[in-house]
Known about the structure:
Elements: H1 2-11, H2 18-29, H3 38-47, H4 52-76, H5 78-88, H6 92-99, H7 104-117, H8 122-131, H9 136-161, H10 163-197
Amino acid sequence: MLRRLYDWVLSLAARPRAELWLAFIAFVEACCFLVPADILFLPMALARPQRAFRYALIATVAATLGSLGGYAIGHFAFEWLAQPVLQFYGKLEAFNSLKACVHDRSLLLLLATAGLTHLPPIKLITILSGAVDVGLTGFIATSAASQGLRFFLLALALRRYGESIRAFIERRLGLLAGLFAAIIIIVYAALHFLGRSGGFTC
């Protein structure tokens, strides 16, 4: 099923309304969809590199709005909508574990790593943010900055290196994402430790 879904998303890049599909996929990825918008963004940006930054902007705006959609689901419709979605993707247990131990600052950190690297899945964090009522200003800013950075860095790489970097991105994106997420978490943990020891306030 996942492979068919992946292939369907990839096929949307060749359609006349690919930009609308990109916006739609970026939106639903952030609240309920399994396949990342990058799968559609990459072939679109390669086919028309002069539009790569335009596509990045479309994806960023749509993904940020999708994050708000996930937040709204968690805040207003958890039991009858969010819970079945999480259960369908096998994420309900992870969601409940996270919910038991997070606070606003750690959730924004998770939102940043999810937006930049897809780790953890962003839909999990946007729904959780709404369920625990994270501050909306910080939520929107973190969502827009992290997802925007991901799309614009991809656009920059594809415009500069074109097809030659596509295979590298597709093969190594998971590894790079994991390393980047680990760096963010380590930096956060170090700052948090310094703050508790009186050497730094974060």
